Each structure stands twice: as structure tokens, then as C-alpha cells.
Amino acid sequence: MKTLFLLGLFLASFLLASAQQDIKAKQILDEVSAKTRSFNTISADFVFSMENEEMDIYEKNSGSIQLKGQKYVVDLPDVGVKVYSDGETIWNYMADGNQVTISYLDDGGSELMDPSSVFTIYERGFRSKYIGEKNLAGSGATHEIELYPDSDEHEVTKIVLFIGKTDSLIKSALLLGTDGNTYGIEIKKMNTSANLPDNYFIFNPADFSDLEIIDFR
């Protein structure tokens, strides 16, 4: 689910330890790392898009994410999906069918399914390149940085990040997938002072009547 992977880009701690990094890009990404690690919680509203010109696909959906350490809740109301994780278990609720599937996080099969794991995904397998400055509508002056994978492990050919010059926060990102799709996320609003209790990240079946539960644990 590349949606979660892209969300992680906005929240990730970019610890690019490889010697093959662009010096300026690494300096900026290190600042992003320090800034994001200083937050106890992060809440963000975003717009997620997917395009494929060859297949005439143009989709755009809104969503939100709340993050606290390895715990997260991702809400995609336009497609009726809400994902909860307390860092150990993951609940995937689908409004269409009123169904929730439950599994251990380790059984997810891919790091792309876990926003918290994306925090360190760049420590292995990505090269960075500083492109320059760019003014974005609604975001102002940003740094444009490209990331290139060293292998096909991450199923992307390139990631483009736009990072605010004044606050060292990621404003938007583009992901060019090996599947021919271009995925994008634009942050609309971010809050780093929300008080989120640990039980917020646990799915409560009592909140849903006639719920179908599929437990893979």
C-alpha cells in the first residue's frame, strides 16, 4: 500500500548514512530528521494522488494520519479505509462490508505497510541529489531533493521531496513507481502538539455494530 509509504516520507527521520549522498541534500535531510524526531506526536491532513497517463488514471483522495512513535492511525475516508496500529498489532478496517482484518505487524510482509518503519528505510538503499530551490503554491520556498534506490527492493524508480526552507518539514512528495504509476502527497495541515493517548491507536470493535472480524493472528 504505497499510500502508507508516502505518508512515511512526511514523518520520516532521514538518516542517510551512505557515503554516496549529495552533501547538501544530506545536510537538509539531517535537519528534517532532527526536527521530526523532536516531536512526540504528529498529526497531518493530506491529499493523496495517483496518476497513470497510459491507462488514463487520475485519482485524488484526502486523508489524515496520527503518529506517536511506532503507533499510528491512517484514515482514508474517500475510499472507506482506516488503519490502526499500536506498534505490535495492525487493524485494517474497511467501511465497505463493515469488516476488520487483524494481524501482527511483523506479518505485514512489507515495510511499505508501516509508516514508522519508513523512518529508517533510507539508511539502506537510497542515494540523494539536491536539485535546487522551488516555490510551491501554498508552501512557499522549498528545497527539491531527489532520492534514487540502489535496488528494486522498494518498487520505486525515484522519489522527489519538497522541503520547506524555513521549517525543515516536508511539504509534498512524488513517488515514481515501477508499476508505471506516479503517486503524490501534499500536506495541507500539520499539528505536532496533539495529546494522543496510547489507546487511541487500538481498534475497538465495540464501536461498530454487526462488525465482521477476520483475525489472522
TrEMBL record:
Keyword Methyltransferase among record annotations: no
Keyword Transferase: no
Domain of life, per lineage: Bacteria
Signal peptide extent: 1-19
CDD domains hit by this protein: LolA (cd16325)
InterPro entries, sorted: LolA/LolB/LppX, OM_lipoprot_carrier_LolA-like
Record keywords, A-Z: Lipoprotein, Signal
Protein name: Outer membrane lipoprotein carrier protein LolA
Species: Mariniphaga anaerophila
